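Appendix B, Record 12. Input sequence as logged:
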Amino acid sequence: MSHKKDEAAGAVLALLDLLAGEGPASRFEAPVEQARRRGVRGADLRMVEQVKRLALSIHARLDRRQQWSAGLTSLVDTACDLAAPHSVEDTLKIITRRARLLLGADVSWVTRPAADERLFRLHALDGHVSMLNTRIRLPWDAGLAAAVLAHRAPLWTSDYLTDDTFRHADGPDEWIMAEGLHAVLGVPLSRGTRPLGSLHVADRSVRHFSADEIALTSMLAEIGGVALERAVHLEETREDMAVLRDRALRAEAELAAARRVAATQRELLDLVLGGCDPHTLVEEFRARLGASVLLCGAHGTVVAGAGDMPEGTREAVTRAAMDAGPLGAPEPWLLEGGVWSVPLFTGSHYLGALCVHAGPALTDDAAELLRHAAGAAAVLLFLHQGSAAVAEGQFRDELLDDLLMSACRPREQLERRARRLGIGLDQPYVVVIARPDGGAQVRAVTWASAYARRRNGLKTTHEGDIVLLLPGTEAGAAARAVRHELSSLLGRPVTVSGSGPVSDPGAVLHGYREAARCLDAMIALGAVGTSASTHDMGFVGLLLSDHLDAEKFIESTIGAVLDYDEQRLTELTRTLDAYFDTGGSPTYAAEQLHVHPNTVARRLERISDLIGSDWQKPERALEVQLALRLSRIRRVLRERGESAGHPAGRQDA
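Logged structural output:
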């Protein structure tokens, strides 16, 4: 018995020795088998087996602690590795590589929400063998990644494709099958409560993940979340810094360009103020701009030029110089043949234009240089001729102001002032009033000054309207021309009225009053944005006129019919009366005239040939009827006047 107990004690010591030496678990069965072969039985054998079980339990705990310690060490190493600054993609690669090594898994990856769509994208795969991942998109509401982010907790499955505790999707399942994966563990990749994605590890065999493995992976995800957030902020900061750097470089370049332009402007002004002539200045422009240059006056005359302009462009340039005044702003505008023109102003007074053959497109630097060159040219023209031109413009405005005064100045004085400006007030002129809609008064006035000077007329502003006195006899045509040019320039409606002609200084005020009443009537009738004269408005114009000229109204409306009757002894006028008296019925008119209806029809056709085919329209018909009545009244008055002048004849009668 003593021998058996010694064998049992030896087996126990052997087990303790294996435990102390951290021997493998497979060797713990050998001392028990040896004791059994040496005859240990009964309670002694059960004691040895119990010691073996306790030793294996202690061994397992030690092994688990070693694994946990190794995992913590790996986490510390990972944290140290992630402490250095990395890009977002490099950070994700470190996380997935460490996760795969930490659990001894086959594949690891990170899923992150896509920025522009409701999907998840795979990032930084480690250990994969297929290329399906390059095009796979994970739906936001299916797959293990969606479940992990929805629950904000770790989830795992021992066999992904057969697990129906979460929703499946074709894309992820196809990729899992292509990779041959079974066990998959997913943990949230987050920073505090902010989810950044999910970290996944997977095996190509069925596997049950232990609590320690899940805890270690979650700790790795926490560390990775901090590093990922920092990497994202770092990339955003770098992008912001790159943007700021680009802005700083652009600002430096713009500042350098502004300094160059300022230096150029200063040099050009010094050249002008130093007393240079136009030819010297234009040569300097050509050298700086590298193109042919023409300096033109307000009337299109060439003041100076440098270089050779293309054939056929000089006429266009001089014409553009005459028309440049309405632009109202010293901005380059492109003419035909790649020639750029810049209007030259001093205040609102137009002096001329600077034209440069610089091609179909201007760089920003060239446009800026051209504007400064135009400024220097404007200063030069003003010094040479501008002060006299500005004074002349003021004299013109003051002359028209005096003509519009109710207490008119002596006629001889007005005519003398007009002759000094090259204007003959004994010649026919028309009065035109323009009223722009919605402002733009300054630009319109600038245009009016240039237009009046081009037409050798006068311009002023009166009660907020632009008033023009222009040579001519057709007030309606002048009003249409003004409306067309001014509305095209301003890009908004302009209402224009006209009256005249007038050929006497004292008649200008009457012409203005007629045109003003015509303008007010047009606006009251809803004709905003149109043009008309008192003559164009028919019987309304007759009422608006300062002098009720019924003779002119009759002649302009039915004068051709009256002349035809007088020359051919026909009855067209009487036919018109009958036609209107019977309500516009040719049949009833024929009965009243005691003629055949065909005769009335032929007479009406002849009337259409004489006064226009639209005389039966309501507006024209009203004017024709009014003219017929005025004609009858005129005839009656004339007959009475003739009778009063021949008393003898009256006694005979």
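The chain has five domains: 2-76, 104-237, 275-386, 404-544, 550-650.
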